[in-house]
Structure formats: structure tokens, C-alpha cells
Amino acid sequence: MTSNPEGFRITEGEDKLVTYRFNTKTAEHHFCSICGIHTHHKRRSNPNQLGVNVACLEGVSPFDFEAVIVHDGQRHPSDNPEHRTYRAGVLRFEPSPGG
């Protein structure tokens, strides 16, 4: 899920977040210092957008989504002249019968 920085607000636990910058140091990845979950990040491909882990949003579950596109994290859009995004695959949630 993406958000613009102005539309994003941390409601609790901000004091527990730590930030890591990979490789080019452009993107900012935020993690919980207690459990290690990736909460959100400022995107390298568009620093005016935030990627948000829906598992960290109150009232939202990753299982609410039937299918989620997974992007190839090794071939970044900023690393090629066409700014092409590569898909690695799709994650699907299929509930168990009767469950």
C-alpha cells in the first residue's frame, strides 16, 4: 500500500522505530526495534511516496487481499533507462475449507 508523506501518521510506537538505508541510501526503511517488523519505507523510485506494511495498520490484515503482486527487489526501476518495474510473482491467499 502506498501513501503520500502528508497523509501518513504514526499513532503509536514511533519511539520504537529504527531506520535503515540500503545500498544507494535513498530509500528509508523503518523497522520496529522490538519485533523487527518492517513498518514502512520512503521509496527510492519515488521519494514522495511511502510504502506501508498493511499488517501494521489497525483494522487491516494481509489476508484481506486475495492477491498481492510481488516486485523483483534485485532489478530496481531506477537502475534501468526505461524505469521498468519487474514482477517476481503473485502471492495469493486461499482460505482453508470451513476455516
Layout of SSEs?
Elements: E1 2-3, E2 17-20, E3 28-32, E4 38-42, E5 50-52, E6 67-71, E7 87-92
Antiparallel strand pairs: 1-5, 2-3, 3-4, 4-5, 6-7
Description:
The chain is mostly beta strands. The chain has no helices and seven strands. The strands form two sheets. It has a five-stranded antiparallel sheet, with no helix packed on it. Strands 6-7 form a two-stranded antiparallel ribbon. The two termini are 26 Å apart. InterPro entries: CENP-V-like, CENP-V/GFA, Mss4-like_sf. This is GFA family protein.
C-alpha geometry: globular
| Strand percent estimate | 25-35%
| H-E string | EEEEEEE
Q: Percent helix among the residues? A: under 10%
Q: What is the name of the CATH topology of the largest domain? A: Metal Binding Protein, Guanine Nucleotide Exchange Factor, Chain A
What is the CATH architecture term of the largest domain? Beta Complex
The oligomeric status of these chains comes to single chain
Strand order of the largest sheet: 1-5-4-3-2
Low-pLDDT ranges: none
- What is the CATH class of the largest domain? Mainly Beta
Distance between the termini: 26 Å
Count of beta strands? 7
Number of structural units classed as domains: 2
- Rg from alpha-carbon coordinates: 15 Å
* Count of individual helical segments: 0
Structural class by secondary-structure content: mainly beta
